[in-house]
Amino acid sequence: MRFIFKAVKNTYISIITILALPFALVFLIMGRLAIYAGAYSEVSIIVSKIPFLFGQIVRYYYYKATLQKLGKNVTFKYGSFCQYPSARIGNRVLIGYYNAIGEVEIGDDVVIGGFVNFISGTTQHSFEDQTQTISNQKALGRSMITIGSDIWIGSNAVIASSIGNRCVIGAGSVLVKPAEDQSVYAGNPAKLIKKI
Fold first, then answer.
1. Which family does it belong to (predicted)?
2. In whole angstroms, what is the distance from residue 113 CA to residue 15 CA?
3. 87 Cβ partners below 8 Å, 6+ apart?
4. pLDDT tens for residues 41-87?
5. Least crowded by CB within 10 Å, which of 19, 59, 124, 128?
6. Domain containing residue 138: CATH number
7. What is the largest CA-CA distance in the chain?
8. Which of 160, 87, 55 is nearest to 117 (CA)?
């Protein structure tokens, strides 16, 4: 019985994969032909809205073709998207629902809850010039943040700084300073709770 179930499951996934490939190809072409900076992000948002297992497969192949790196066994749940093709994601990564992923490198064996926002550093915008509105001041640029391996990030966290290996970031935390290896962080701003 177990053999039959596994065969049916594998057949189902194969059929869904074959059906998803043309969609992934269309979105890949749209992403590659992007003529302005926000186009990649907008195409990624469209891809994020495809539901069910079908959508997860489309997202996997789209990002496999467009990101700098995408490992094996990576799942992007509904609503999650990468803003820039410079993102790098390792193996066995589960990205929960409605995540926004900026310039980030994610290691292996990472579980990310829903509604997590990975912003590209803490100094993206200038606000020093008192003679101009903040919206008219120049952007300072993005910076790559690194998420280590063996990580669990709780829902609704904001990640603006790097995380070492084997860490837990509590739900709702705002991480603005680097998290040390083998640690639990929580709070706003996130603080070291304990070593593990």
1. Belongs to the transferase hexapeptide repeat family.
2. 29
3. 67, 68, 101, 102, 103, 104, 105, 106
4. 888 999 999 999 999 999 999 899 889 999 999 999 999 999 998 99
5. 128
6. 2.160.10.10
7. 73
8. 160
